[in-house]
Design a protein that fits this description.
The chain is of the alpha+beta class. It has helices spanning 42-47, 70-74, 100-107, 138-145, 188-195, 227-234, and strands spanning 2-5, 8-13, 17-18, 40-41, 57-58, 61-62, 81-82, 91-97, 122-129, 163-168, 174-181, 200-208, 212-213, 222-224, 240-248, 251-256. A hairpin with a 5-residue loop joins strand 10 (163-168) and strand 11. Belongs to the pseudouridine synthase RsuA family.
Length: 261
């Protein structure tokens, strides 16, 4: 019998990779030449092991073995999910896990698990339309102080940003900003800037919480977080999950039982 434990993957998501288990919408046509745009899902990309960055030993396996499988490297045999989606055009830090409780904890600001630890924030770098200055921009002031009405369909008014600052101006008509939010409404950052009569041309998630960044991961690469990183960055104790597997030759039988964490 094999019991799974909480496993968290940190992935540097490229553009045109979909945060979905289905690639049904993975081949739209380009408005420029009418040809299909090649899109895959984050699950296909990660399971291919092409971007895996390992070292040392995890789950009793030598991670330097070039022929290692996804199951051997991660210990994940059940279904796994993203901890907060990134849309197809957004790049950067994406976490995935096999622990449904962790998904709820990290993405639901009203979760009971946040009473002592506070909400987990997300930080993005956004290239926005227009020339905006830190002190004089009405749009940035609104996002900082009262939030933005992104429409009832998408959750109504957002909370003010936790932090918002201008990084530079790549062109006279564009501004690169860093913005930190504590919510996770659908396409929230893009809708916030649209709601103040700007728009996002590029979006990159650079940090989750106070410390978790991409580090040296190149685009398309991923690694497994240590238990200490999961606790420090997400305030979550890794645990033995309820899903176990009984190995019988090449066939694997899934059993659902309850175990104390």
């Amino acid at each position: 019998f094999e019991r799974e434990r909480t496993t968290v993957i940190l992935y540097n998501k490229p553009r045109n990779v979909i945060t979905s288990h289905s690639n049904i919408d993975a081949a739209p046509t380009s408005p420029e030449n009418g040809k299909e745009i090649l899109r895959t899902t984050v699950y296909e990309e990660i399971q291919s092991m092409t971007g895996y960055v390992g070292g040392g030993s995890e789950h009793g396996i030598n991670l330097k073995d070039g022929n290692i499988s996804f199951e051997s490297a991660t210990g994940i045999r059940s279904k796994w999910h993203a901890i907060g989606r990134l849309d197809v055009d957004t790049t950067g830090l994406l976490l995935l896990t096999n622990d449904g409780g962790l998904v709820h904890h990290a993405t639901n600001p009203t979760s009971e698990s946040h009473k002592d630890s506070g909400v987990i924030t997300k930080t993005y770098e956004a290239l926005i339309m227009g020339h905006h200055d830190d002190e004089s921009s009405p749009a940035l002031k609104q996002i900082r102080t009262i939030g933005v009405d992104i429409g009832a369909k998408y959750g109504g008014w957002t909370k003010p940003s936790q932090n918002l600052k201008v990084l530079n101006h790549p062109t006279p008509k564009s501004t690169l900003v860093s913005i930190t939010i504590a919510e996770g409404k659908n396409r929230q950052v893009r809708r916030m800037f649209h709601g103040v009569h700007s728009g996002v041309m590029k979006l990159h998630r650079s940090k989750i919480g106070q410390k978790l960044t991409l580090g040296n991961l190149e685009e398309g690469e991923w690694r497994i977080l240590s238990e200490a990183e999961v606790l420090e960055s997400l305030n979550w104790n890794t645990r033995t999950l309820d899903t176990i597997y009984q190995q019988k030759g090449r066939n694997r039988k899934k059993n659902m039982k309850s175990y104390k964490h």
